[in-house]
Specification:
Blueprint lengths: L12 E8 L2 E8 L4 H8 L18 E4 L2 E4 L12 E3 L17 H8 L9 H14 L5 H7 L11 H16 L16
The structure holds FE2/S2 (inorganic) cluster (2 copies).
One FE2/S2 (inorganic) cluster (FES) binds next to loops.
Length: 188
């Protein structure tokens, strides 16, 4: 093992392979580097937000081999070889470089599911996984789907509406079609 700077003197580093949003990366990291920090600082994917840094708020949630995980609780070296999906990977390919908003992202826009947006990446990834497991949630199930994530400014009614809206949008496979539940017509 080698060290790369005097700041890291005597701290071993390890080669870590991550496939993030479909793109393979190889980075050399100290064993204590958190996955959240590796994504943000080593790979430049700052869409993953870090709030509490101890597993409570859910802002840092990413999909690790498809399952939601709090990236502030995962050592990057332990994710070696994993597929990671961050909020940047939730868009859909429409032939343009930026893509179009995925159904959960579009639902948050439609239902005004955010204010400052700090918590939003964690909600989007959490709901994406939740709807994959339960594509047609009841209102109570939609509430339960987001119960582990904290938002300090929006309140949860519009976020729960966004879950239901996203289920409608994803079910139709089109984020902008005509037959989805109206954004303001879901159960409150
Ligand atoms: S920053 Fe990871 S759960 Fe809060
Ligand atoms: S929108 Fe501000 S913390 Fe959720």
């Amino acid at each position: 093992m080698s060290t790369t700077s005097t700041d890291q003197a005597a701290e071993p580093t390890y080669d870590v392979r991550l496939v993030v949003n479909g793109t393979p990366h190889e980075v050399r990291l100290p064993a204590r580097r958190l996955l959240s920090d590796a994504l943000r600082h080593d790979l430049g994917l700052t869409g993953t937000h870090v709030g509490c840094e101890h597993g409570v708020c859910g802002a840092c949630t990413v999909l690790l081999d498809g399952a939601p995980a709090r990236s502030c609780l995962v050592l990057a070296v332990s994710a070696d070889g994993a597929e990671v999906t961050t909020v940047e990977g939730l868009t859909e390919d429409d032939g343009t470089p930026q893509g179009r908003l995925g159904p959960v992202q579009q639902a948050f826009v439609d239902c005004h599911g955010l204010q400052c947006g700090f918590c939003t990446p964690g909600f989007l990834t959490t709901i994406t996984a939740g709807l994959r497991d339960n594509p047609d949630p009841t209102h109570d199930e939609a509430r339960e789907m987001v119960a582990g994530n904290l938002c300090r400014c929006t309140g949860y009614q519009n976020i729960v509406k966004a879950v239901e809206r996203a289920a409608d949008l994803a079910g139709r496979g089109r984020p902008d079609g005509d037959d989805a539940r109206p954004a303001d017509g879901g159960a409150a």
